[in-house]
Fold this sequence. Notes:
Elements: E1 40-47, H1 62-69, E2 90-95, H2 103-117, E3 121-128, H3 134-145, E4 149-153, H4 173-179, E5 188-193, H5 201-208, E6 211-215, H6 216-235, E7 240-245, H7 267-275, E8 282-288, H8 299-315
Parallel strand pairs: 1-2, 1-3, 3-8, 4-5, 4-7, 5-6, 7-8
The structure holds 4-carbamimidamidobutanoic acid (ALG) and zinc ion (2 copies).
One zinc ion is lined by residues 131, 154, 156, 158, 170, 245, 289.
InterPro entries: Agmatinase-rel (IPR005925), Ureohydrolase (IPR006035), Ureohydrolase_dom_sf (IPR023696), Ureohydrolase_Mn_BS (IPR020855)
Cofactor: Mn(2+)
Family: Belongs to the arginase family. Agmatinase subfamily.
Amino acid sequence: MQPASDEGTPIGPVDASRVPRFAGIATFARLPRLDEVEHADIAVVGVPFDSGVSYRPGARFGPAHVREASRLLRPFNPAQRVSPFAVQQVADAGDLAVNPFSIDEAVAEIEQGARALADRAERLVVIGGDHTIALPLLRAVHAKHGPVAVLHFDAHLDTWDTYFGAPITHGTPFRRASEEGLIDLTASMHVGTRGPLYGVDDLADDERLGFAIVTSEDVEEHGTAAAIERIRARIGDAPLYISIDIDVLDPAHAPGTGTPEAGGLTSRELLRMVRALADRRIVGADVVEVAPAYDHAQLTAVAASHVAYELISAMAPRP
Ligand SMILES: N=C(N)NCCCC(=O)O
Ligand SMILES: [Zn+2]
Ligand SMILES: [Zn+2]
């Protein structure tokens, strides 16, 4: 174990000017593993689970794919004017090994795993996995913080009720979270939604469940600055959980995902919106639905790794 606090300086990524980026086992951004540091401000943890999908499977391979694509991330983030790995200890906690044959068991294991990690790290940035995992992650966050504002970037509402009678799937986590009282109904929001729904009632249900919406079309029509203004007004200073389904991006920017929808955000728009949250109280985040089998040239994984980097930067303490 290398004590992080010896000189009070966090252990950062492997130096790319000394060890080539493409060498070595991939941790996120080539950061130390959680067992190599005494305490972490942020643990990046993978949840290779995709048994909750309604269409194309494969997000179970997301964490490894995002780690591979994160090798090129550099230590200084000029957009947020912060060195996210120098002002806080960030470490890779590896993957939660959860049951691929039982959704109920996996969901219990994910909550338990997230709660156990809370002793070792202040905050988690979770790499999925399909969007089912947001439910147990929110259960764990709620246990620590009470109801949180959920800022949910996604093509989909994910507040649907059941699929084939199943209540816990990747299309239903935020309905369950709302029903369980995990989220702040006055401060939660979807961003980037678009595409066909099952019926017009979906939107009424969604509003009743506590979500306001900035659609992908709103972003196009009024721009990211207006979207950011609406987001910031809605979330206020509530403890904030950010859940990013990579399919919020247009399939041109993120083809490697299970339920792609045309007409999405650009990665530039998404990165900018995440950056605008740096002064908020972010208590946790996830980046989900990266499915490498449908990816090309690491497009989706590069986008996801940069999104995670911006989340980690937004969580960094500011002077
Ligand atoms: N969470 C994601 N990515 N997709 C949900 C889609 C659910 C459906 O098939 O209607
Ligand atoms: Zn989605
Ligand atoms: Zn989703």
